[in-house]
Each structure stands twice: as C-alpha cells, then as structure tokens.
C-alpha cells in the first residue's frame, strides 16, 4: 500500500491533482471514522476529515516519503479533532429558539439527524451508549483509546502519530482504560 | 483495595501485550486468590470489549469528490506555466 501511495504522491508533486483522489479514497474511511469517534457527530466529522485531506494536500511537499503516509494523515486529523474539541464550548442551548424559525428549537433540529441505514442494523442503543462513554473521556485519553481500539493501531504507531514517547502513550492508555472502567460500572 | 499497585500496572501491561513473563505469572497467581483484583481485571477487559464493539463507520459517498472540489487550484497553474 505504501508503494502505491508514494507513487501517487510523486504524481501529485508533479502537479497531477487527480492522483490525490486515489490517496483520499484509500484513507477516507479510516480518517472519517477517527473524526466521528473523536467528535461524535457526522457533520463535524466530515468537515474535519475533509479539512485533514486538504491540509495534507497543501503540505504534501513537506511529507517525508520514507515515513508512513497513514501516520502522517492520522496526525493531521488527530490534531484537527483536538483543536475542534478544545474550541467547542456550549455556546448555544438546546431549548433556545432557532432565529427566524418561529418557535423551532434545537431539539427539533436534532431529531431530523437520526440514524443512518447501516447503523440501524446494529443495536442502536448500544452504539449510542458506546459513543457517549467515549465522548466523556478527556481528549488525551479519548485519542489513544480511539486509535488503539477503534482504528486498531499499535502503540508504536500511536506514539509516532501523536509524536509522544511510547511511555507517555502507555500511561495515557492505562488512564484511559481506568476512566472507561469507572464510567462503565454504572452502565 | 489493599493490594500493591503493581498488580494494576501488570493488568495494563497485559492488555498492552507488553508484560514480562515473570510478571504475568505473578499476576495470574494473584488473581486466583484476590477477588477485588479479579473483578478489577474483568472490568478493564469489559471496558475494552465495549469500545471494540462499535460498528465500523464509512465516509459519506460524496466524500472524495468534496475534498477534490475544495483543493486549491494553484497546481494546475504551475503545470500551465511549465
């Protein structure tokens, strides 16, 4: 896979923009999933995942082709997710009226955004519980837990993606698991 | 729990698949005799299984087209100038 990616990157560097589409195709599901599990919202996940690919494209000349492209794009996406989580503040209230809608509030907005077909097949309730519990984790624990148990990456890859020593990744993993354990006692 | 902290450390090392064989033996022996630690370990494994039970999600259909449409056009100019 890395060979294909590197040859596409060389084409992109020569000015062939379309070659980038193939790179996006290869990684879009992984990156979208990461963003979705980090942010808990499809719209935001799509925004941030697209932003990650756009940034990677803009900075493609600075990518070191001796390294794994997947780690690089994961890093860009992870940093964007963390920025988004940090900036996110409860700047609206669910029961506040939406301007110009004559009585509609945010609850009615949410209702229209419910399940998608592929998820209906799963136990929706369990899926929502998992997502909610992941979202409760502080962002630095959430990141390692999602990368390890949802993206199924090794601790070494996670250490490379986050640019953190392996020992720090392990400590966060331990604390993240302990935090989840505490939360799940009540589920 | 009055057990030494090292047992919880060992549990995490085990879950990271990075535990020294002698520590694993010590942990296993301890879990046989300590109800509290056994429960702790089970809860940790449950937490992991819980996160792993999430369904895999896929990017929306139009995702790649959306990225491609949003890319800056400058590279095409570079090509023209060549």
UniProtKB/TrEMBL annotation, chain A:
All residue ranges annotated as the RNA polymerase sigma-70 region domain in the record: 24-89
Gene3D superfamilies assigned: 1.10.1740.10, Winged helix-like DNA-binding domain superfamily/Winged helix DNA-binding domain
Family annotation (InterPro entries): RNA_pol_sigma-70-like, RNA_pol_sigma-70_dom, RNA_pol_sigma-W_bacilli, RNA_pol_sigma70_ECF_CS, RNA_pol_sigma70_r2, RNA_pol_sigma70_r4_t2, RNA_pol_sigma_r2, RNA_pol_sigma_r3/r4-like
GO biological process: DNA-templated transcription initiation; response to stress
Keyword terms: DNA-binding, Sigma factor, Transcription, Transcription regulation
Protein family according to the UniProt entry: Belongs to the sigma-70 factor family. ECF subfamily.
Repeat recorded as keyword: no
Entries under Pfam families matching the protein: Sigma70_r2, Sigma70_r4_2
Keyword Cell inner membrane among record annotations: no
Protein name: RNA polymerase sigma factor
Organism: Mesobacillus campisalis
GO molecular function (one): DNA binding
Boundaries of every RNA polymerase sigma factor 70 region 4 type domain copy: 129-180
């Amino acid at each position: 896979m890395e060979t294909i990616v590197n040859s596409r990157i060389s084409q992109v560097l020569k000015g062939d923009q379309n070659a980038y589409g193939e790179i996006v195709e290869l990684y879009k599901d992984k990156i979208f999933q990461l963003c979705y599990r980090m942010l808990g919202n499809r719209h935001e996940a799509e925004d941030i995942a697209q932003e990650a690919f756009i940034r990677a494209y803009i900075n493609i000349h600075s990518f070191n082709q001796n390294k794994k492209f997947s780690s690089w794009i994961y890093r860009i996406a992870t940093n964007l997710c963390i920025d988004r989580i940090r900036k996110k503040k409860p700047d609206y209230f669910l029961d506040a009226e939406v301007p110009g809608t004559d009585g509609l509030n945010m609850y009615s907005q949410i209702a229209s955004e419910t399940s998608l077909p592929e998820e209906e097949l799963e136990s929706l309730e369990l899926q929502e519980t998992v997502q909610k519990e992941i979202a409760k984790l502080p962002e630095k624990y959430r990141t390692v837990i999602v990368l390890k148990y949802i993206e199924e990456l090794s601790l070494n890859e996670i250490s490379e993606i986050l640019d953190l020593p392996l020992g720090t990744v392990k400590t966060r993993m331990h604390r993240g698991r302990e935090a989840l354990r505490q939360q799940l006692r009540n589920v | 729990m009055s057990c030494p902290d090292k047992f919880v450390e060992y549990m995490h090392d085990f879950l990271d698949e990075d535990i020294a064989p002698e520590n694993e033996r010590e942990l296993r022996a301890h879990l046989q005799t300590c109800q509290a630690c056994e429960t702790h370990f089970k809860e940790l494994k449950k937490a992991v299984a819980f996160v792993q039970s999430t369904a895999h999600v896929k990017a929306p259909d139009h995702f790649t087209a959306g990225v491609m449409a949003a890319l800056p056009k400058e590279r095409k100019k570079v090509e023209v100038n060549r």
